[in-house]
User: Which sequence fits this backbone?
């Protein structure tokens, strides 16, 4: 974001051209349009002992990406769930900071022996923030809407295996699946599983849920404020008010943390962390994420349809060097982050080997070099794409960076598949299934991948599921369908006196209910 | 005068109409669409199509334009495609931040930049004049975001005198807090603007200094200062006024750099977010508003010229 305001100098010549001025105004708008925001990610938690907890405290959390709507049933992206899930909206089940899944609005549930029917018993005494009691009909309405024909819920795919939602009595909800789904309980803890009040309106601007915080206000372009739900059915939240402040500028976020304007803030630039190192007033909190920075290859289009070229590119990029340059992140050799049960270290596939990369390119007929375009949304740090360019130059691949706005990427790359190389952060958890999709933007259609994915999700045991997912991750890595550059880290700095904040995946879920401010 | 006003208003309306068409069409040239942004990467193409239909962005362009224009003529700027909020409401809210920012900066810039510029012009051979001239150059050359960063680091982070950024959540409910949060951004913005005004005031002063009428006035026995004041100031004010008008208008959106550095929820920030989301109805509203501002300011500057310069009043 380095734009200077246009300084117009027309001076003396100014009697003509009212229309010209108009055009300048319009153009100024469009030019500004061309400069997007900054990169984003966030997070962590910590525990600081001592002192007395202040139940009347307000905690200010510095985040980066503001949601464009609060409607969790139609809006995409992780920013909505980040502030609303767990805090305001809840599901039958809930996922905590460590990834453990526990019953929430349900007090208990059981799965039938054939693995196709979940029966949930609703917890007693749960009310929505407007005072109406939660009933099975709210759950049925919320979940059925996701899978209804004509649904525009962007997360409807999470419930691909869900056939029907019914309630035999006001305390029981029955979910019937079309086929076994090893990840189903996981998806129930996500945005698709949020339980809203039946008939709730104005979801884009307000939120009425059952959680430990009630929605207070959303100041567009600035902040979202939640206040403690004093009639919450479970453990009361530790602070009276949470303010999520959106600060896109890295330095501004840093200054807000330093001056105590925010109590805990996401620090994206690892260079800024040094100043906090050893400072007793602050704690640096690092956590894991599911932010897989993925170098996508257009597998359906020459020259990347040639597996040798894809291997060459993977072997031509030194990921350890990238981590050093980028200053954060951890290595991954596949689409599976270490927190997933089916993680396996695959970094030995396509190890850094520029000599072999050149040989592979020569075999593929590109001994004299190759020109490729890398389409990358401008929201990501340019460090990564520039590093790729310089690395690939050494093996004779000339890469041109095409930095675009995210909507352009969506249209050109994601929808129209018009690209060679693409760089995006695949932030969604458990998205290995993308490699089993028939018309995904990578252009990879492999019946074997689809078979493995089906076998994994319909597995009857966890071991069987994990075996198949592992095989799938290995397959796509061995075929060099994509290159997985790094897994982002969640980095936050918290001021001393704050504790109980989440540490992991804070860009997709920031559970504030356990935050405590000590005096 | 009445005739001139009438003609001006006619031109204004026509310009706006042309601008609305241009803005509408140019925005349609941007790649990407709002339905895809809403749906994200997890929705199916069928879902995207459904959203497109619900939003009405699959209708013919002419139809979309006319329905938007119809709304605007009735004072309805439409609603955001992403969250349904009223565009005019949002514009009003953002202006409570951006307008004081730009107005405050312009005022400060005039108060400081113009006198210094005149000084630099009338003493252009003295060391002080040279120093001021260099300072003006420097003020224009230094990027405003850098100035903002430095000021924040010193005043807000080191000395803790003022907030490092942000605007009170309840806006102007607490005027003192609102003013405090605007001090650094206003100063930063005024520095750049003041430097520009200084340059223009200086060269305007230099120009009139050599004008025949000043020589005549001097010959009649006036001192250089009095001659400048009586006869020069009006003439020198003309280009300065023009620049001020242009600066003010361009800063309504151009202040975005400063808004970003100080995380102020202003007009420019909103525009960038909206363009990033392809929330075109909101973008159109914002750009149209700024266009109106540019035209009105141009009109006011013109009136100012006529008041200052009798020659313009006579020439129809």
Assistant:
């Amino acid at each position: 974001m380095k734009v200077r305001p246009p300084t117009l100098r027309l001076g003396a010549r100014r009697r003509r051209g009212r229309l010209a001025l108009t055009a300048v105004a319009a153009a100024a708008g469009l030019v500004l349009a061309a400069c997007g925001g900054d990169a984003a990610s966030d997070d962590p938690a910590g525990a600081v002992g001592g002192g007395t907890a202040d139940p009347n405290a307000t905690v200010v959390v510095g985040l980066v990406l503001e949601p464009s709507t609060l409607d969790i049933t139609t809006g995409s992206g992780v920013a909505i769930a980040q502030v609303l899930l767990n805090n305001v909206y809840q599901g039958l089940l809930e996922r905590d900071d460590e990834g453990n899944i526990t019953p929430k609005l349900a007090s208990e549930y059981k799965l039938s022996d054939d693995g196709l029917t979940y029966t949930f018993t609703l917890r007693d005494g749960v009310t929505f923030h407007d005072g109406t009691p939660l009933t099975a009909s709210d759950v049925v309405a919320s979940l059925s809407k996701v899978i209804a024909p004509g649904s525009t819920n962007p997360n409807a795919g999470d419930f691909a295996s869900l056939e029907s939602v019914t309630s035999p009595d006001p305390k029981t909800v029955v979910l019937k699946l079309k086929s076994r789904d090893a990840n189903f309980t996981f998806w129930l803890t996500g945005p698709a599983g949020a339980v809203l009040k039946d008939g709730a309106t104005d979801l884009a601007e307000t939120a009425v849920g059952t959680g430990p915080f009630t929605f207070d206000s959303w100041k567009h372009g600035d902040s979202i404020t939640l206040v403690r739900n004093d009639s919450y059915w479970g453990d009361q939240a530790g602070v009276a008010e949470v303010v999520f402040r959106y600060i896109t500028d890295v330095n501004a976020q840093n200054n807000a943390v330093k001056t105590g304007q925010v109590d805990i803030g996401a620090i994206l630039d690892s260079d800024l962390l040094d100043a906090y190192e050893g400072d007793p007033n602050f704690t640096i909190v690092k956590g894991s994420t599911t932010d897989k920075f993925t170098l996508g290859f257009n597998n359906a289009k020459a020259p990347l349809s040639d597996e040798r070229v894809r291997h060459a590119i993977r072997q031509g990029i030194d990921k350890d060097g990238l981590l050093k340059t980028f200053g954060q992140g951890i290595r991954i050799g596949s689409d599976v982050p270490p927190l997933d049960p089916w993680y396996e270290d695959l970094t030995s596939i396509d190890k850094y080997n520029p000599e072999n990369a050149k040989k592979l390119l020569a075999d593929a007929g590109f001994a004299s070099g190759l020109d490729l375009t890398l389409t990358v949304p401008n929201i990501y740090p340019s460090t990564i794409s520039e590093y790729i360019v310089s690395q690939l130059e050494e093996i004779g691949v000339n890469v041109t960076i095409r930095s675009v706005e995210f909507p352009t990427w969506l249209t050109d790359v994601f929808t129209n598949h018009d690209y060679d190389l693409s760089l995006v952060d695949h932030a969604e958890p458990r998205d290995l299934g993308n490699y089993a999709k028939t018309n995904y933007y990578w252009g990879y259609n492999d019946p074997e991948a689809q078979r493995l994915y089906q076998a994994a999700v319909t597995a009857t045991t966890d071991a069987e599921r994990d075996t198949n997912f592992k095989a799938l991750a290995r397959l796509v890595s061995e075929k060099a369908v994509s290159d997985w550059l790094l897994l982002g880290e969640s980095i936050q700095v918290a001021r001393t006196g704050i504790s109980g904040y989440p540490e992991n995946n804070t860009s997709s879920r920031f559970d504030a209910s356990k935050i405590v401010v000590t005096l | 005068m009445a005739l001139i006003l009438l003609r001006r208003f006619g031109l204004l309306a026509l310009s706006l109409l042309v601008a609305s068409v241009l803005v509408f069409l140019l925005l349609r040239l941007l790649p990407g669409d709002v339905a895809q942004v809403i749906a994200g990467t997890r929705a199916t193409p069928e879902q995207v199509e459904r959203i497109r239909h619900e939003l009405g962005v699959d209708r013919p362009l002419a139809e979309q334009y006319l329905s938007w224009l119809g709304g605007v003529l009735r004072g309805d700027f439409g609603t955001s495609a992403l969250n349904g909020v009223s565009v005019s409401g949002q514009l009003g809210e953002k202006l409570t931040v951006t307008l004081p920012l730009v107005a405050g900066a312009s005022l400060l810039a005039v108060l400081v930049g113009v006198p210094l510029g005149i000084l630099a012009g009338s003493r252009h051979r003295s060391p002080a004049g040279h120093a001021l001239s260099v300072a003006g150059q420097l003020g224009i050359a230094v990027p405003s975001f850098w100035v903002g960063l430095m000021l924040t680091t010193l005043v807000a982070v080191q000395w803790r005198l003022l907030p490092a950024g942000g605007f009170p959540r309840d806006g102007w409910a607490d005027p003192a807090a609102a003013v405090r949060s605007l001090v650094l951004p206003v100063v930063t913005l005024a520095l750049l603007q003041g430097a520009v005004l200084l340059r223009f005031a200086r060269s305007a002063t230099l120009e009139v200094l050599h004008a025949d009428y000043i020589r005549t006035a001097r010959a009649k026995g006036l001192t250089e200062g009095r001659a400048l004041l009586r006869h020069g100031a009006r003439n020198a004010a003309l280009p300065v006024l023009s620049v001020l008008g242009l600066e003010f208008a361009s800063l309504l959106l151009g202040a975005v750099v400063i808004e970003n550095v100080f995380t102020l929820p202003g007009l420019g920030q909103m525009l960038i977010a909206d363009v990033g989301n392809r929330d075109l109805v909101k973008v159109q509203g914002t750009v149209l508003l700024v266009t109106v501002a540019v035209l009105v300011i141009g009109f006011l500057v013109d009136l100012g010229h006529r008041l200052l310069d009798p020659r313009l009043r006579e020439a129809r």
Chain A touches chain B through 78 residues (CB under 8 Å). The first helix of chain A runs from residue 18 to 33. Residues 262 and 501 of chain A are 13 Å apart (CA to CA).
